[in-house]
Design goal:
alpha/beta, 8 helices, about 20% strand
């Protein structure tokens, strides 16, 4: 079985057992805690789910919570074939466990996140999970977010950092956080010899660069490492090798970084 087929099988098992729903609810709860101080007086928000993904987990959760949600992603393009049917089944399994009540208000848009097809000052909240690392023109995306967010609106951005062990997106996509590296693959190969090919678009930005870009347009009241991985893989020799290139232990073991950005009121 190919690595991709293995990941699909694991994802299906996670959906059937409810683990995936539990994990996505945990992410939603983390976001709710981080943005509560900014949106507490607006129980029903207009939300942009930036790069919502083919499974659309947060899009569905936000709608189930009663918000008006717009999802944008090139993956929202209608399609056929076996993979498209598999994702329709996966979305059905996921939505079935949510058991939403009442009217669901939302829309899906196929579009470019660097040229958002929305009016100025349209959204109270922007959410993005494991997408920013794939944007090749981050400054354009951040500038567009500033344009479409209302004064006082907040963006909750969770980034899968390139500097972590799984940052090249060429290891398991389902073991989160990463605990093991396949036989024959060196930890942090993508920062070292790069023997294993990188097959998806990645901007390879580091934390400081993301923060600098957001601070050009937003206040950043909070930012933090949300998930650690690879601490047992980082031997003293590896830490010294990568440290000589400017990578800190904190950076190398941070699998997910959250940036909370607020548009000045």
């Amino acid at each position: 079985m190919s690595p991709h087929a293995c990941d699909y099988a694991v994802t299906l098992r996670q959906l059937l057992t409810g683990q995936r729903t539990h994990d996505e609810r945990s992410l939603a709860a983390e976001r709710d805690r981080d943005v509560a101080a900014y949106v507490a007086r607006r129980p029903r928000l207009t939300v942009l789910d930036l790069a919502n993904g083919r499974l659309r987990p947060q899009y569905l959760l936000l709608r189930a919570a009663g918000h008006r949600v717009v999802g944008i992603d090139v993956a929202n393009r209608p399609g056929g074939g076996l993979e498209a049917r598999a994702y329709r089944l996966a979305r059905w399994l996921y939505a079935r466990r949510l058991r939403p009540r009442g009217r669901l208000d939302g829309a899906l848009v196929c579009g470019d996140v660097g040229v958002l097809p929305f009016r100025d000052a349209s959204f109270d909240l922007v959410t993005s999970i494991a997408a920013f690392e794939h944007f090749l023109d981050v400054p354009a995306v951040v500038a567009e977010l500033h344009r479409v967010m209302r004064p006082g609106a907040v963006a909750w951005i969770r980034i899968h950092l390139f500097s972590c062990p799984s940052g090249a997106h060429n290891l398991s996509a389902t073991e989160i956080p990463l605990r093991t590296v396949p036989a024959g693959v060196d930890p942090w190969d993508h920062l070292r010899r790069r023997r294993l090919p990188v097959t998806v678009p990645l901007n390879e930005w580091r934390v400081g660069r993301y923060l600098d870009e957001f601070r050009k347009h937003f206040e950043v009241p909070r930012h933090y490492c949300a998930m650690r991985e690879g601490e047992s893989l980082l031997t003293p020799a590896l830490e010294a090798e990568l440290g000589a290139r400017g990578y800190t232990r904190d950076e190398l073991t941070c699998g997910a970084y959250v940036i909370v950005a607020r548009k000045p009121a």
